[in-house]
């Protein structure tokens, strides 16, 4: 089952913050986050495995709620290079990774 | 480490023709995935291999699609009797198969256009 992302699109000015949400009707084994820039392949950002986990590097971080049904990706002090489509991915207990429909993030100067 | 490579990068074919895509994963990665992506959508799972074994195939895949990974190295994805609805980007990804990392390394993709 495909995880549901919101919002579908967001437009920011450089330096602003954004939150992208991901939800599932069932507990996820793990949640992954990927970013895809226009015309390029998706690139892995991070994986969260445990309920209640928070993880991040630089100004991009993510959380996974206790029930493992919701995850959020936090982008702070956005940079132009953050522009792209962000995908939440259901990690799957059987190694089958199911991508959400994506959230298009546009950062303007 | 040269990354995941896919060939061809672009393929234009006429409806009804057969096409084959090749994927060379990162060496020593034992998991290999095929995804299909259309404009504005997320990658859609097609199938995946652990070494040479095909462990799961999407129910969305018709019998016209077949994938192989002989000897657990490169993989091929063949589409027989192509239809216009098959037009998409076909992405290959590999993974070292360690549960904790979970990272998929994607190739640049093979874009198929069916006329």
Account of the 3D structure:
- The complex is a heterodimer of chains A (109) and B (115).
- Chain A has strands at 4-6, 9-13, 18-23, 31-36, 43-48, 54-57, 60-64, 70-75, 84-90, 98-99, 103-108.
- Chain A is mainly beta and 109 residues long.
- In chain A, strands 2, 4, 5, 9, 10 and 11 form a six-stranded mixed β-sheet that branches. A five-stranded antiparallel β-sheet of chain A has the order 1-3-8-7-6, with no helix packed on it.
- In chain A, a hairpin with a 2-residue loop joins strand 6 (54-57) and strand 7 (60-64).
- With 115 residues, chain B is mainly beta.
- Chain B is built from no helices and eleven strands.
- Chain B has strands at residues 5-7, 10-13, 19-24, 31-37, 44-50, 53-57, 65-68, 75-79, 88-95, 105-106, 110-114.
- In chain B, strand 5 and strand 6 (53-57) form a beta hairpin.
- Chain B is globular and about 40 Å long.
- Chain B starts with a strand and ends with a strand.
- The interface between A and B is medium-sized, with 22 and 24 residues.
Give a brief description.
Chain A is mainly β and 109 residues long. In chain A, 0% of the residues lie in helices and 51% in strands. The relative contact order of chain A is 0.34.
- How much strand of chain A? over 45%
Element string of chain B (H = helix, E = strand): EEEEEEEEEEE
The greatest interface here is: A-B, 22 and 24 residues
Report the end-to-end length of chain B measured between terminal Cα atoms: 36 Å
Q: In one word, what is the shape of chain A?
A: globular
- Could you report the average pLDDT of chain B, rounded to the nearest whole number? 91
CA-based gyration radius of chain A: 13 Å
Query: How many alpha or pi helices of chain B?
Result: 0
Distance between the termini of chain A: 37 Å
Q: How many separate helices of chain A?
A: 0
Oligomeric state of this protein: heterodimer
| Low-confidence sequence ranges of chain B | none
Structural class of chain B: mainly beta
Count of distinct strands of chain B: 11
- Global outline of chain B: globular
Main sheet makeup of chain A: 6 strands, mixed
């Amino acid at each position: 089952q495909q995880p549901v992302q919101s919002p579908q699109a967001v437009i920011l000015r450089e330096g602003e913050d954004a939150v992208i949400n991901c939800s599932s009707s069932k507990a996820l084994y793990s949640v992954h986050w990927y970013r895809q820039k226009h015309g390029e392949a998706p690139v892995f950002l991070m994986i969260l495995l445990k309920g209640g986990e928070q993880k991040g590097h630089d100004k991009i971080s993510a959380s996974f709620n206790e029930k493992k049904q919701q995850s959020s990706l936090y982008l702070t002090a956005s940079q132009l290079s953050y522009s792209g489509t962000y995908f939440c991915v259901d990690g799957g207990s059987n190694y089958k990774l199911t991508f959400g429909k994506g959230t298009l993030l546009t950062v303007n100067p | 480490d040269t990354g995941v490579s896919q060939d061809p990068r672009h393929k234009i074919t006429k409806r009804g023709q057969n096409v084959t895509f090749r994927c060379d994963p990162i060496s020593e990665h034992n998991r290999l995935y095929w995804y299909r992506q259309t404009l504005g959508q997320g990658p859609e799972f097609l199938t995946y291999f652990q070494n040479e074994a095909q462990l799961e195939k999407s129910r969305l895949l018709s019998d016209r699609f077949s994938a192989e990974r002989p000897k657990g190295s490169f993989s091929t994805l063949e589409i027989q009797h192509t239809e216009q609805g098959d037009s998409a980007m076909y992405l290959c990804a590999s993974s070292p198969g360690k549960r904790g990392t979970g990272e998929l390394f994607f190739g640049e993709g093979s874009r198929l256009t069916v006329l």
